[in-house]
């Protein structure tokens, strides 16, 4: 079995390959002048959300899992003229059912493609939602960063944004409703508003699609009813701030996160230690995973899409840092190995088997 890891950075896309997930070969970068903020493996292709200082933001498609790239053509994602908005960044690319591909953007909008990502159309019902004028920008921007199509029902889609929170549709996007009950917004006078939360990432349990895991701006939550309500699962973690949350691709109830201090003095890992936390009971208990990770003071941040897992058995787990290191675990987090170092800031990491 071979594993391919795509690493999106602020200065290009790197591909890392391994036969054992312990030793790695890292290719020379492509798109070296572009920020690569989103990645998606889909049907033997690699889709990348690029932001280039000359041509602007776009989506590039690499055949054979990124071995061959076509020159970007006309911009596949364009805001309708009457919106008065323009694309700033593609934050998320996600396949859905029936061959659809979704994209989440900055400013916060959802786009859908029926031709494999060559062209996208805006999901206008979400853009026209009466709450949209009240969505605010987080420190990273005002964007949809999570798209979770239901694995069995194409009418159900969940999105999350900073800030704004979680929104769901059950009618294929004809209408959308906020789904933030139980999720706090510590920076607002009302800590539990209908919407306005700064959600950082949401992941779906592989075998129980109604179970979701949410990393918030102060708060880690689980939903057992498809996002209609949320309950804290932060007990046992060193703190409840962070950006990434990843659900195991084969085992139910298994998830990973990387807690980071939310203080304004410095968003560093708690106790300045490099620790991935794993739960094997849907967040009821947590265990730190450190074998092979640096045991010296560690100050790097892990961004929301810079952590992932591959579909192998056992699954590999991966994360990249804003100081340019990428780590891999071949055994679901029990031990870790360095994939690459001295890269530009890592924005997104995605893995597949070949």
UniProtKB/TrEMBL annotation:
Top-level taxon in the UniProt lineage: Bacteria
Signal peptide stretch: none
Please give the CDD domains that the UniProt record associates with this protein: Sialidase_non-viral
Coiled-coil boundaries: none
Q: Which GO terms describe its biological process?
A: xyloglucan metabolic process
SUPFAM superfamilies per UniProt:
Oligoxyloglucan reducing end-specific cellobiohydrolase
Give the matching PANTHER family: EXO-ALPHA-SIALIDASE, XYLOGLUCANASE (EUROFUNG)
- Protein name, entry field: BNR/Asp-box repeat protein
What species does this protein belong to?
Actinocorallia herbida
């Amino acid at each position: 079995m071979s594993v391919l890891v795509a690493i999106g950075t602020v200065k290009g896309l790197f591909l890392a390959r391994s036969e054992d997930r312990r030793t790695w070969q890292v290719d020379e970068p492509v798109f070296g002048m572009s920020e690569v903020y989103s990645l998606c493996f889909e049907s033997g292709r690699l889709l990348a959300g690029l932001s280039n200082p000359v041509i602007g933001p776009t989506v590039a498609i690499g055949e054979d899992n990124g071995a061959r790239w076509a020159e970007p053509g006309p911009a596949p994602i364009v805001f309708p003229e009457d919106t008065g908005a323009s694309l700033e960044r593609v934050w998320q690319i996600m396949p859905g059912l029936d061959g659809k591909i979704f994209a989440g953007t900055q400013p916060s909008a959802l786009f859908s493609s029926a031709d494999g990502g060559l062209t996208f159309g805006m999901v206008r019902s979400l853009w026209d939602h009466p709450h949209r004028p009240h969505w605010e920008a987080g420190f990273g921007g005002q964007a949809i960063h999570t798209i979770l199509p239901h694995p069995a029902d194409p009418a159900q889609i969940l999105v999350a944004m900073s800030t704004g929170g979680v929104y769901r549709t059950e009618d294929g996007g004809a209408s959308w409703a906020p789904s933030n009950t139980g999720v706090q917004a510590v920076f607002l006078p009302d800590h539990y508003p209908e919407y306005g939360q700064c959600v950082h990432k949401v992941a779906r349990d592989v075998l129980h699609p109604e179970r979701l895991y949410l990393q918030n701006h102060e708060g880690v939550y689980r939903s057992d009813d498809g996002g209609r309500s949320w309950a804290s699962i932060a007990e046992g973690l060193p703190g409840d701030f962070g950006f990434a949350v990843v659900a195991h691709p084969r085992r139910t109830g298994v998830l990973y996160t990387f807690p980071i201090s939310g203080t304004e003095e410095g968003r560093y890992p708690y106790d300045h230690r490099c620790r991935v936390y794993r739960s094997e009971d849907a967040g009821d208990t947590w265990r730190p995973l450190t074998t092979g990770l640096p045991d010296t003071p560690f100050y790097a941040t892990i961004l929301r899409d810079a952590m992932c897992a591959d579909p192998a058995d056992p699954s590999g787990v991966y994360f990249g840092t804003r100081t340019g290191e990428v780590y891999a675990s071949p055994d679901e987090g029990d031990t870790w190995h360095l994939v690459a170092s001295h890269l530009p800031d890592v924005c997104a990491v995605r893995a597949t088997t070949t």
